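Progress against Task 2.4 (sequence-to-structure conversion) is shown through the following example record, which the project officer requested during the mid-term review.
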Amino acid sequence: MPERLAILPLTITAALLLASGLPAQEAKPSAAQKPALTAEQAMDLAAHGRCKDALPVLRRTVTQSASRDERKKAGILGVRCAMAVDDRPLAGELLGQLGKQFPSDPGVLYVASHAYSDLSMRAAGELSQKAPQSMEARKMNAEAAEVQGKWDEAAKEYQAILAQDPKQQGIHFRVARLLLSRPSITPEDEERAKRELEHEIEIDPTNAGAEFILGEIAKKALDWPQAITHFAKAASLDATFGDAFMEWGFSLISAKEYEKAIAPLATAAKLQPGNPSAHYNLGMALSRTGRKEEAEREFAIQKEIIAKLDERKNTRTEMPKP
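Structure tokens generated for the chain above:
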């Protein structure tokens, strides 16, 4: 005879749970389950260095809290915690949220400046450790040498990159920039820089910067047809390149092609509305083509900009009274 199963008496709650398909043991909460942290508790934990527990709540608070002050505080503490535990993706996410919600807040900008600098240093250190002979590491080393004025060291790194890949985009341009950045530039340096820029354009015909610097070299030599050609090319390659449009227009004025200068100078004034030179040159081109009223408007804008710049300069340099 088969063994009968013992039937235990059921409580009403357990019976209802079984009827609904849920196991009876879920009727009461587990003793090990912890209550969820509040935003205030998470911020307190973060302030005391307990970042691992605090970060998930801080992350939610930045986007979900109804309080602006709470979102800002959670974001700042979250960035510091993310940097402390080296969670770079989360740090970047929180910095993005802070930048979106508090774009002009001094406290947020202060934290962001330090965090982005730290992220940059960590990435650079990792690159140096994991791929010290890579072209990217050599570029980084060369850039650092340039900043320190170590021209020969920078040139050596760039030449090493070209030895690895003679057609690497951007390197001939950097070599040219290096030659033209030295404290004393010889005619030989300038000629070599010109050749480097021409090599760059052969490799990358879309390099607007190379075209622009070739235009500057031609401008310095008063070779206006060449300057016009290079500046116009740079402007056609990059529609946001305000300096290229301005120098193109200036070169046309220098070549006495006033009517042709108006269009690029008008574009320069739109791209750089706070640049007095753009308005002055546009005024000159308009004046030389008989459009006196429009020219006077541009000259007035130029004077207004200069007055504002002088006012800001005086405000910054004014010493406080004792």
